[in-house]
Amino acid sequence: xxxxxxxxxxxxCRLIMERLENSGCRCYLQDDWSLLYKNxxxxxxxxxxxxxxxxLISGCCFNxxxxxxxxxxxxxxxxxxDPSSPDDERVNHWISQNELYYQFNFPQxxxxxxxxxxxxxxxxxxxxxxxxLQPAIPVGWEKLRGSETQREINLLDFRFRNNLSPALFQLFxxxxxxxTKDMSLSELEKVLFRNKKDFFDHKSSVYSYxxxxxxxxxxxSATKIKIFRSSRGCYRMVVY
Length: 240
Fold this sequence. Notes:
By secondary structure, the protein is an alpha/beta fold. The protein is about 45% helix and about 10% strand. The protein has helices at about 10-20, 35-40, 55, 65-70, 90-100, 110-120, 125, 140-145, 155-160, 165-175, 185-195, 205-215; strands spanning about 1-5, 25-30, 50, 75-80, 225-230, 235-240. The protein has a 4-stranded parallel β-sheet with strand order 2-1-3-4, with helices on both faces. The protein has a two-stranded antiparallel ribbon with strand order 5-6. α5 (about 90-100) packs across α6 and α11 (about 185-195) packs across α12 (about 205-215). It is elongated and about 80 Å long. It starts with a strand and ends with a strand. Mean pLDDT is about 85; it is low at about 145-150.
């Protein structure tokens, strides 16, 4: 099967192409639609599938499906980084999209290639390079920093509404008052066990307390609160 990658994200597509070629496909890159258009018009065009960058076409004034259909061809078009479908539904989404535009039954001999393509895209070593498939970062995590104001809540009402134990409320109150800062595990350990005069490591207990606190407060009926863990192992509370 011959596959043309129409993309400006050449580096990540080379990763995908290399793995597809190991499965017997022939792949090549193209970043200019006009050149690809000329190739498709050629009577001897051997392209079996176009794997397209969603950002390359989505802002254009033409529909790629319609453009190819008007040439009398029905070459499957796959938007490999289309953010509109989850991993486990992506193959069906690709198939439905082509069947909708071309009004045909998707070629059975292409389905195994779609499954392989999706398998490659879902691989964390590849997916982390595909920007459109990354989960969104909540606004509070990036924007609500330093002296910037976050929503204020009544701590006592919040405690009784969520039935927080004294230890959980102690942890919550500290995190709430320091909610514009990153808090390390050691810092939170001191908050919970500052009156414990022993030599035990309480870090595993801190993980348990944080988990229990998250479960109790993140479903609060009146306030949206999230506790995030950063890549550095610190914690941050965001009040929306």
